[in-house]
Amino acid sequence: MNISLQKVGNVKAEITVSLVKADYEENVKKTLKNFCQKAQMPGFRPGKVPMGMVKKMYGAQAKADEVNKLLGESLMNYIRENNVNMLGEPMASEKQVAQDIETQEDFEFIFDVALAPEFTVECTANDKVAYYDIQVSEEQVEEQVKQLAQRGGHTENVDTYTDRDIVRGVLAELDETGMPKEGGLQVEMASLMPAYFKNEEQKALFATAKTNDVITFCPAKAYEGSDAELAALLKIKKEETAQYQGNFSFQVNEISHFVAAELNQEFFDQVYGEGAVKSEEEFKNKVKENLQNQFVADSDYKFLLDVRAYLEEKVGQLEFPDEMLKKIMLANNADKGEDFVNENYDKSIVELKWHLIKEQLVKANDIKVNDEDVKKTAIQATRFQFAQYGMANIPDEYLEQYASEMLKKKEQVQGLVERCIDEKLTAALKNVVTLEHKSVTVEEFNKMFEKA
Predict the structure, then answer these.
(1) If one looks up domain 128-144+279-451 in CATH, what number appears?
(2) Is 123 helix (H, G, I), strand (E, B) or coil?
């Protein structure tokens, strides 16, 4: 066997693989011998089919299988052992001549290989990158406390309606005289939130509602023609709403009023765990600390984006084997066609350039990710999801349980690996480049993304 690589320009190469009979002959014999032992044919006992007959029937197939197997293994071993920095997969060359598996004993296969452009990138203290320190305002702390109190609140029944209360009761269709319509629609347990009515006049009808009141209103007017909302209230299909444009009576059986949680020890324990904070001041400090930690993650994310932009400009324009990469992209997206390739190729090259830069940075900073790192990242992501709903004291066993479910999904694992790499790379680069700290408000920080 002989394998050779010939560069064709800066970013393309041809790999030629030459196989002779001695390379595959022994494996073909073993394969045919196995066929003999397993083949079942009329007139022959199992395992006693003559080799000549087996060779005649299966020889070409066995030869093709072994040649293809040897070709694939040899090609990829050569690429790996010779550190060929390849983009995508090798593709059969247009120079390839058809091979006759039955008559030939020696074979030659030619592959086109897309090569990554050669360049070097590094970060040092001479590289200056902005780092935005997001400041937590007292208003933000108060707003977060308010949201946590809302999430930890409860409902209680009251006698008189106030804004944003939920009213429940019997909804009955009326006729033109204002009396219950014979055979009309009736909903025994209907729920309303008058605060969300679109029509102000209809909303005002409930402004002073009390338990046991009977209120006449028009649901169709209240929702101003929203078939989805009207259908949900009347428990009918959307296409049936045109039949119910008149008045309904609503007998108020129950009024539910939402009460935010009090800032007391029970609430503090509910949010942060028993005894973690013991006063309103400590609670607000904890809220501020958590917000600050969240903002550090946001600052790190922006920092990595800025590092990317800085290094992409520093590296400059790179040469890529566009024609071949488009062929590879089309082969990987055969169901989407050439239009998809033409529309997305430039974007893919931008991402590929960053991928190549990032590879060098990861190697230079000795970034490695193991299973434990990925698990920790999954737990961290799970904890953040719960925190968004104001649940900050979830037991570790539950976090691990949810994280384990994430790790069962291949696409999520890949995302977690990339996230873990980004976090480690960010931490490393913050200690390498010179950070130009800039203090900003949340609003100022968010506007940077709006501009982007």
Answers:
(1) 1.10.3120
(2) coil
Q: What is the pLDDT of residues 172-207, one digit of tens each?
A: 999 999 999 999 999 999 999 999 999 999 999 999
CA-to-CA dists, residue 168 to 171, 181, 190, 221, angstroms: 9, 21, 6, 19
pTM of the model: 0.69
pLDDT band at 46 (very low <50, low <70, confident <90, very high): low
What type of residue is 309? Answer: A
Contact 167, 254 (CB under 8 A): yes
Token pair 């408000």 is found at: 441
Q: What is the CATH number of domain 154-259?
A: 3.10.50
Contact 49, 41 (CB under 8 A): yes
Distances (CA, A) of 347 to 3, 155, 328, 343, 355: 35, 51, 15, 8, 12
2-115 homologous superfamily: Trigger factor ribosome-binding domain (3.30.70.1050)
CA distances from 117 to 7, 12, 321, 358, 452 (A): 12, 9, 9, 14, 28
